[in-house]
Fold this protein.
Amino acid sequence: MKHLKPYKIFESESPLEDSEILNTVWDICLELQDDGYTINMGRHKETGDYLCYVSRLERPHDIKSFNLKFDYKDVKETTDRVIEYLDDKYLDTEVYVKSIFNTHTGVFRHINAGWHGIDNVNGYLDNIWSLKIIFKLSNINI
């Protein structure tokens, strides 16, 4: 009987409830699709955390399309609703930013390109290339 895993009575929600949570997160984000954003749900291979990605593509239905930058304020209301819905399941929000050169002022705003916690990129929130909301659920596959 070594192959059987023990059942934990006090584990988090059932897989069915987790599926409902994923569907609700998806539904909350659907309005962003109407505004030209692409929504993807996934799971981190190493941590098992769930991810909800928001990006804006030049040609959403073309595999060769590339991301367009966007301003966090354009997705903040929806992001806040997802975070509020997830409650204690919510872990973090990260944004993908790149260094930019302001052609109007001639000022180069530098930050290492890559994923950063949203609280660490003040001054760059108008230059987001992608956003991910990270949260934990029971172990189900999506």
